[in-house]
Amino acid sequence: MSVTTSGLTAVRAGLIDYRAAWDEQRRVHEAVVAGEQSDTVLLLEHPSVYTAGKRTEPWDRPMDGTPVVDVDRGGKITWHGPGQLVGYPIVRLPDPVDVVAYVRRTEQLLIDVCAEFGLAAGRVEGRSGVWVPEDDRGPARKVAAIGIRVARGVTLHGFAINCDCDLSHYDRIVPCGIRDAGVTSLTAELGRSVTVADVLPVVERHLPTLVAVQD
From the candidates 114, 163, 165, 176, which is the catalytic residue? Predict the structure, then answer.
């Protein structure tokens, strides 16, 4: 199923193996670069998998031999799996390319999605992603992660927002290389079930935030 809004086509891809989704990203990326396809966002879930960005250190990885897929995005290691909504925006950035501004727009999209469910989340200086601030329940905790790559002016990889996933998967790694903060989900923070099916249409509605306003 696909929905087009503000020039973006959102594709609901369902549950898809990480490597298969990576192949599809690259196929769509070539088409967008060539002008044969409009800006596209793949929205999906993965079977449980760890992926390591280019800045992953050896000590960030699982110590128990759990397989890790090394990828060409920025950032460090993270987990993807059921109960987490993953978005891969494949969009042409305005020239001159401003990657930081694109990351900030992605963060804003996710902050706005959290707000719709009643969760106040925001940014942490010096760290990407979207965070629940420190409170009486514990230190700052990441509810959504961002890791991107830009090639020939078009984005790859993207974001992941934890809906009702099993957070114990993060115990095997140092998620995103951060040791002094936690990982959380919408369900854990709000004390009620918030599923990928709940979050999907809300993310779709906010996707236009990714597109820079042209002067």
Answer: 176
pLDDT at position 183 over 70: yes
Mind listing the pLDDT tens digit for each residue in 74-106?
Answer: 778 888 999 999 999 999 999 999 999 999 999
Amino acid found at 77: I
Listed residue (170, 191, 192, 189) closest to 181, CA to CA: 170
Nearest alpha carbon to residue 163 among 76, 44, 38, 35: 44
**Long-range contacts formed by 2-6: CB under 8 A, 24+ apart:** 3/204, 4/38, 5/204, 5/205, 5/207, 5/208, 6/207, 6/208, 6/211
Beta bridge partners of 138: 135
CB 141 within 8 Å of CB 133: no
163 flagged as catalytic: no
How large a percentage of the chain has pLDDT more than 70?
A: 92
| 80, two tokens | 């993807």
For position 74, what pLDDT does the model report?
Answer: 73
Look at strands 40-45 and 68-70 and give their pairing. Answer: unpaired
Q: Report which of residues 157 and 59 the model is more confident about.
A: 157
Check residue 170 and give left, alpha or beta (phi > 0: left; psi -120 to 50: alpha). Answer: alpha
